[in-house]
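Job type: complex structure
Entries:
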Amino acid sequence: MRYDDPWYDALASGWGESDGSGVPAPVPAQQAGEERGVAAADVYLEVQRSAAFQEVRSRYRRFVVPGVAVFLTWYVGYVVTATTAPGLMARPVAGALNVAMLAGLGQFLTTFLLAWAYARHARLRRDRAALELRWDTQELTRSVRGGAL
Amino acid sequence: MTGHHQTLALLLFSAFVAVTLAITTWVSRNRHGSAEEFYAGGRLFSPLENGFAIAGDYMSAASFLGVTGLIALFGYDGLLYVVGFLVAWLLVLFLVAELVRNCGRFTLADVVAARMSERPVRIAAGTSSVTVSVLYLVAQMVGAGSLVALLLGRTSEAAQAWTVIGVGALMVIYVSLGGMRATTWIQIVKAVLLLGGTIALTVLVVLRFHGDVDRLLLTAAERSGHGDAFLAPGLKYGGSWTARFDFISLGLALVLGTAGLPHILSRFYTVPTARAARRSVLWSIGLIGGFYLMTIILGFGAAAIVGPEAVRGSNAAGNTAVPLLALDLGGGADSTGGTVLFAIVAAVAFATILAVVAGITLASSASVAHDLYASLRRRRTEPRSEVAVARVASVGIGVVAIGLGLLARDLNVAFLVGLAFAVAASANLPVLMYSLFWRGFTTRGAVWAVYGGLVPALGLVVLSPVVSGSPESLFPGVDFQYFPLQNPGLVSIPLGFLAGWLGTVTSAEVPDEAKHAETEVRSLTGAGAV
């Protein structure tokens, strides 16, 4: 994809070089002093609009939004059922185990599972792209500020 | 309970105090006095260390003694607490830990103020953080006073008062001299001690029933006198609809409040990256989950081995269930084993309170110095002088907590903890969520979100049966009770979110796109994170 935009080119110049093997191409520094602050803000806007960032953000949201919806519904449902329908919760299953015990242990189990799934998703689908974006963004803000940082 | 328990418990506890003071002096010897060092411990803790420290911050005496007591007395209804305490961590892991680590420096207000007009937002977020911390602190101080009385058998008011003062003095020393680095190591030591003690007791309980947990539960149900009802919800929160709504309110506060507790948020700044913050939360979820599973065994074990009558006879709220269980597991009141186990449990409980109290004091002194002092004094303060203010603030907060702890001596500890969670969920969570995820959020929205949650939460408590209108309330003589629930969360949490939305849509301010872009990019990538 192409952006007719100087920042995109600067962004692309640092692409895939985050392991430190290459020196990022210098970006032409802004001349006027008061333009520097504005330009630094533009960096974030530009990164936010870049396809790479949108991808990281949507990967994060696609996992987190359903995840939060699922565990909050499951937890609130559990608390409401426990307080409004104790009869259902008291139904025996096996030995001392009843529905309430199973639901409580189920809350523990789903918490562990969701935490593991989140960490795995973040490690495999997000971390690398986010790290590359981080270096590129920092590289850009640094060059915009004229290497002052 | 004989004098042997007390002497041994005192010796063990003195050893803990000596070790923690040694840590503090060792740490403060080569400190640099920078804000980075004082608030965030240099940001170089490993995920494993921080995971233990988070667990240490979170596993308070309220859960070790209070929740096990509730399970021993009311069976399943005590277990409902534990589930809320644990599930809350998913919210922290998914929405808070990494993003807050990426966006902020030391406090909650850092995250919010980055997008807004700094001064009013900082004052609002700082005020609510200090309020939450002080409430939580008072709960721990009250707990410390009554625990000492219970465990050491000194029930005189003077002994309780001196305990509260002693705990306050120790926490001020830890925090003002050692900062975050000493506090973190104290949390780690305490977490290891608490987990070790809990594991030992759990193994002994399970061994007593030859590994048959099913029989443990059935024996507990049988001895409780409630039969199968002991293993199902309803014994404590079953009665009136007020009690049921009260529980739903508490459940909401527990699950949403953790993500707004200042001393938990400040822990994410002690690791170098967001990835490390995530991994430390994973560690802490494992540790906290394991701990709470064991407290369930201990609670039912106390019901099965000690029996609810004996537990209630020692302390009506059930706070002594675990010490009594330890005494029994060790071989009875006059045996060496019983004495040793009882003393260990008592010492671990003190260590727990002391460490939690230090963590909260540090977080609230950071809010005072970094948010309130820095914004109320217009001039830019140097980081070094800010740390000096934070040290003084920790002394001030210690004095306030000691004073309130002495005043509130008769308040229920679990209620105070629930209240702190409710205020955190009402005042801190909405503003944090909106500023991380809502593009159109404005300064007015942020300020309204904080006060719109804080004021109703506190106001509803004043109008609740806790303060007036019933024989157990703080002022039993007068009646200005207009709100039926003890926990305000069910009403005040939605109000906090509503106020933030209302403030945003009514403000003339145009939200700053670039600032939002900066927050979003920084929170998800870590660009520009310190």
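Summary: The first helix of chain B runs from residue 3 to 29. Chain B touches chain A through 57 residues (CB under 8 Å).
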